[in-house]
């Protein structure tokens, strides 16, 4: 296994400490429907296209970056840029605008550019592209570090490779079975199908079939130089990096769940696993032993996320819970948020001024944005 896998998954989406309070305001919602989906019909979980939605390129003057260099290709000292502003390297940054040349992969200034080289900087989102090709629901999307290719896998039994610049599908891989999950780490792309995890090294072209799971592989995560996969029979298979010729060595099979494992995450030296039964198991990554079980959801736990010292969990029971350690070093629920529909997944990014933002998607095809740590919904 490549040494880059030792980095593990990103454990945090911010540095603030959750205060346990909340403010109820009107949420900002984004609705994306497939072409054949009636506008008045709830989303039924069968969307088969990928929607690429980077944030819009403008921010308010109050959120203006502290310093920015110019992107214009003319003399940065004595000429004006295309917006009529001086191109002095000591001048204030252009007002939070994303570099148009960078968007088309043609910026020659690099770090010296006067404009932002980031999608995630702004107050909203705009549709960039819709990638259509899968015939059934998509089970995973991955953009490997340093790659210009986007990978997706679907219950239609295929994995597809997309060119990030053109949005065109450049390869279709027939897997011969429904896909349960897809992740990437370093140069590796992992795809879970019934009874097997397929591993590809996109740099060397090496391919491995990791056998051992029983039933569909619904979730995978990488951490502490290990690949962990949750299976339909309730077990979690563990492979550890060994040598270049044999990079995946099965080292353990964690047994604790009595129903299919559907989500995994790693944080603070712990593995967290969620099941269809609504339970969460906590495992010690060093010993691979079960530490405790958490009961708080009434239906399937669909996604887990570690943020700062908290564990976030969501469920089809329409709740999102913040778990934290009490004075007795016991994990308990500090805050519960309720949505109108079952919650499908959680994702976090760092937004303007390094503020953590939580994305929460539900099965009515709506994504809510929340500002942490106060868990206020963005208006």
Give a nutshell description of this structure.
The chain has 379 residues and is an all-beta fold. The protein is built from one helix and 27 strands.
Question: Based on CA inertia axes, which overall geometry fits?
Answer: globular
Biggest sheet, open or closed, and with what strands and sense? Answer: 5 strands, antiparallel
Question: What is the radius of gyration computed over CA atoms, rounded to a whole number of angstroms?
Answer: 22 Å
Relative helix content: under 10%
Round the mean pLDDT to the nearest integer and report it: 76
Which sequence of SSEs, written as H and E, runs from N to C?
EEHEEEEEEEEEEEEEEEEEEEEEEEEE
Number of helices: 1
First-last Cα distance: 44 Å
Strand content is: 35-45%
Number of beta-strand segments = 27
Given as residue ranges, the uncertain stretches (5+ residues, pLDDT < 50) are 1-47, 53-93
Structural class: mainly beta
What attributes does this structure have?
single chain, 379 residues, mainly beta, 5-stranded antiparallel β-sheet, 4-stranded antiparallel β-sheet, 1 helix, 27 strands
What's the helix and strand layout?
Layout: E1 29-31, E2 49-52, H1 100-103, E3 129-132, E4 138-142, E5 149-154, E6 158-163, E7 169-174, E8 181-185, E9 188-193, E10 196-201, E11 207-211, E12 217-223, E13 226-231, E14 235-240, E15 249-255, E16 261-267, E17 270-275, E18 279-284, E19 290-295, E20 301-307, E21 310-315, E22 319-325, E23 331-338, E24 343-350, E25 356-362, E26 366-371, E27 376-377
Antiparallel strand pairs: 1-26, 2-3, 4-5, 5-6, 6-7, 8-9, 9-10, 10-11, 12-13, 13-14, 14-15, 16-17, 17-18, 18-19, 20-21, 21-22, 22-23, 24-25, 25-26, 26-27
